[in-house]
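Hello again, I could really use a second opinion on something today. I've been staring at a protein lately and its backbone has me curious. You're getting the sequence in one-letter code plus the fold written as tokens. I'd be grateful if you could look everything over and explain what you see. No rush at all, and the record is pasted right below:
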Amino acid sequence: MAEENLVETKEEKTEKDSKIKLYMAMIVPIILMLVGFFLVTKFINPRFNISGGNVIPGGVSGGETSESKSDMDKSKKHGKNKTIIHELGSVLANPIGTDGRRFVKVGVCLELGSKDLVKQIDESKSKLQHQLILILSSKDIEMLTSPSGKTLLLDEIKKSMIAQLELTNEDLPNIYFSEFIVQ
């Protein structure tokens, strides 16, 4: 009888040990992930944004510019108009001559001369993205990967957007790539 109790307690003890090991296997990775997240957000990259908004590299988000007070004061003194950066979004296209085996993903931001144009851009967003896909699909990989090719591509996109929206160069002074991936 004493042997049976001893065997039962050993079984209970091994069962408890296996449960503890299971809990530790679940808890330790979660703790390590939280510590890693804390280290990244506080020390490695303190400007890490977890809000999920439309953040554009360089501190611009959601269609507004983030100018410092000194920049705003300078622009007022010199009579410059405040421009707005508006994200058009990303498009994915297959470049010419790749038989659909390669793709290019491009994100475009438009610098607008006035706030009034934001609504017009939003209403024409699908047309502008379509135009962007057509332009990217007509380019070969060599042009898309060279720096001079990207500059020419920006010029072509800008002219196309100005024509599509019936704008002037003052209404759309610049276009920027927010992402550019060729795979």
